Amino acid sequence: MTDVAYAGTPQAGPAFITARGLEKHHGQTHALRGVDVTIRQGEIVAVMGPSGSGKSTLLHCLAGVITPDTGEVTIDETQISALTEDQRSRFRLTRLGFVFQFGQLLPELSAEDNVALPLMLAGTRRARALVQAHSWLARLGLEGMERRLPSELSGGQAQRVALARGLVNAPAVLFADEPTGSLDSLTAERVMETLTEVVRNTGTTLVIVTHDARVASYSDREIFIRDGRVTSPALEGAM
Amino acid sequence: MDTSLAFLGLVEARPGHGYELKQLYDEHFGGAKPLAYGQVYAMLARFARDDLVEMVGVEDGSGPSRKQYRGLPEGRKRVIEWLVTTDAAASVSCTNLFAKVVIALLLDEDAARILNAQRSALLDAMRQLTRAKQNAALLDVLAHDHALLRAEADIRWIDLAEARLNNVKESLS
């Protein structure tokens, strides 16, 4: 089945991420059953669905974290599934960003080192990486907190550090898995406002996995998954 | 809820006489407000006049004779049109959506798609509210928050209803 753009969907640009015929098993579980997805450059898309529906599996396939059993994923004309593991790793480091629930910051590293890490892993020298990290931390309202450890930050501050880490390598696509799952309503709202403002300003494509309708309300459209299939919101001709 | 279309949906799904249909309606949708007999017979007469249902016989008994009704294709068409029309998000009534889901299940139609479409319409409305909150005065933000949370509650009900659809269908059969 194919996701359907309904009336009002912003057509932000040409197809940027395409997935065709994705199938994925986890043991006996058939997590994805022939998923087709098209996401345009600069779009903000929410991937929604109940627990176990396959939404995180889809995110991981799109991001090249796992390889589908069959089907292919293309991002900006690079066919991810055709890359070697090393090439895929390099592609993730240089072209993609990630934000996870609870931030998943490295607890022994300061905020600045957490943010600088993706750049250093991609080969940027520490001094230069820190300059960029400071710039992103300031942009996200965290000036003066560069040396703090994650344990010295509030939940909202830690998640902003995680956003800075996801954005520091100027990714073409930012993947976010329940990015506000651990935050109270008001803090979650501020994180989403910051996140969407930054990606709109930078033209970054954003794919958010969430079960939270308020988080999804910051998106341009949703892709709803149930039992490993994309379901269509269109009713016309359904009956 | 659109009482007339929900009642027509029941005639389409379960042909019967007025009393039986009223009992069925009250069981599913009546709650604290069961249908009045006058309303039942007025609706059936109007449906018959408009060729949405037809009278197929009269059952004699100890009391007054009972006219048997069954749905016609035009009636089913009218019901399906109601099922596939997504409610305007600002006026989503869960009782109307509830009635649509029950009628769709009774007619063996795809109730999950009705829920899915309504969820999508609500998300669209939430997007508009979220956009409206940006740069709005604080009191407007509070008002939009209220509307957002109501829509979110409707979506959570839709999620639960979808998860329970198979069991609900079994309970109706």
From TrEMBL, chain A:
Q: Where is the ABC transporter domain?
A: 17-239
Q: SMART domains in the record, alphabetically?
A: AAA (SM00382)
Q: Which InterPro entries match?
A: AAA+_ATPase, ABC_transporter-like_ATP-bd, ABC_transporter-like_CS, ABC_transpr_LolD-like, MacB-like_ATP-bd, P-loop_NTPase
Q: Which residues form a coiled coil?
A: none
Keyword field: ATP-binding, Nucleotide-binding, Transport
PANTHER family documented for this protein: ABC TRANSPORTER RELATED, IMPORT ATP-BINDING PROTEIN
This protein's name: ABC transporter ATP-binding protein
